[in-house]
Amino acid sequence: MNTSKLALITGCLGGIGRALVQAFADAGYTVIGMDLAEAATGPGPLPQHYISADLGKLCTDAAYRDTTLQHVQALVQGQLKVLINNAAWQVVKPIEQLSAADWMQTQNVNVMAPFLLTQALLAQLEAAKGSVINIASIHGQLTKPEFVAYATSKTALLGMTRAMAVELGARVRVNAVCPAAIATPMLVAGFDGKPEAYQQLADMHPVGRIGQPQEVARTCILLADDQLGFMTGASIALDGGIGARLHDPV
Length: 250
Ligand SMILES: NC(=O)c1ccc[n+]([C@@H]2O[C@H](COP(=O)([O-])OP(=O)(O)OC[C@H]3O[C@@H](n4cnc5c(N)ncnc54)[C@H](O)[C@@H]3O)[C@@H](O)[C@H]2O)c1
Description:
This protein is of the alpha/beta class. The protein has one domain (6-238): Rossmann fold (3-Layer(aba) Sandwich), CATH 3.40.50.720. It has 9 helices and 7 strands. The protein has helices at 15-26, 55-60, 62-76, 100-120, 122-127, 148-168, 185-190, 195-204, 213-224; strands spanning 6-10, 30-35, 49-52, 82-85, 131-135, 173-179, 235-238. A 7-stranded parallel beta sheet has the order 3-2-1-4-5-6-7, with helices on both faces. Helix 1 links the parallel strand 1 and strand 2 (30-35). Bound molecules: nicotinamide-adenine-dinucleotide.
């Protein structure tokens, strides 16, 4: 495998994951994807190499962790240019109904797994003068009811991004992208038959629309570029301006 420009993307079969796979392949990267499914299948772009792994189990089962990380390291070999921690688990429930299992799964998949993958691949990232990109969320800063577990995990991911950037310095850059609503197939399907609600969501963003998965991917391509070597510890808002908007009646 050509490891000179290797990208590892978790959650590669999801809405944003597929856009990431396409963009990095188009930019000349060899892409290794990870996701829950046993095999990578369509529709949409698929990575050149695929690892089926449960990132929740990676955090809770030491034997599974060792085997999985060894498998990842064997595939990556010497150098990794970019690790994109994109997979996430989202539980939407009122506080009273959030179970301990909901809480742990969310923090494990969204925070601990990115930590463990980064830790396991540090030498390969450093060898490539590479970087880590954590896909966080606007929920790391602004949130709404029933998102306590998810919002807490994304806030922690932003804290981890800064802390790792400070510790790793010039060795490995670590940045985060914070999207607001992105028009993944799942999000669009959620508004099926409710065009007014979809339009209302779009109108809440100063740019008058919600984001596209390709815009998240484009941001990651820029962040991975050596020419942005001064950028580390950053949390990039990709939110159509909604995070700057004051909800006063006008
Ligand atoms: N879509 C949005 O509006 C939006 C907005 C802000 C942030 N994000 C973030 O973008 C990233 C991608 O989200 P998406 O919208 O593409 O979601 P998605 O649900 O389409 O994709 C998430 C992927 O993560 C994988 N995954 C979940 N649990 C896993 C586990 N235990 N082990 C391995 N893989 C697992 C899923 O199988 C799925 O393919 C996430 O980090 C999400 O929090 C999305």
